[in-house]
Amino acid sequence: MALRATIHKVELHISDADRNYYASHSLTLAKHPSETDERMMARVIAFSLQAQDNLVFSKGLSDTDEPDIWVKDLTDAIQLWIEIGQPEERRILKACGRSDQVIIFCYGGQTSKIWWQGIQHKVARAQNLRVIALPKEAIETLGKWVERGMTMHVNVEDGEMLISTEQGQINLSPELWHQTKEK
User: Which domains does the chain have, with CATH numbers?
Assistant: First the structure.
């Protein structure tokens, strides 16, 4: 018998002074049986940093042809493709070809650094790629705070995040590792 996804409900309140974005989102997250709590929280953080009205979670791990999070326009063209973790070179280049912008959020600490050092020259030709590292310790802490129903407050200012839940508060500093120049 196949294992089913675990459903998590997150009331996400975002105050992003850097992008002048202030909104609340009621999220329903399906956590795949193979997904860790840390990865799920990395998805929520990525959503928080890129939040906009038409940003949605895709089928994610259940569908290898889709990213974790995306924005599509009315013609079904992909405007933003967000990956969580350490995707392979081929997947990154395919995403860059299919979408206007691709953002990878990695969260594995030293493992992510080794992954990026090994892959960065292979994806150098991608003209629409950004890679952001989320601090491993902060994601691990957020993973310990996971509940089936959560309320999160995310404040972003000067690139720094303050995340508050019923479990506590944590500061998170995303680090930009790569960004291609805007056209």
Answer: 35-147 (3.10.640.10)
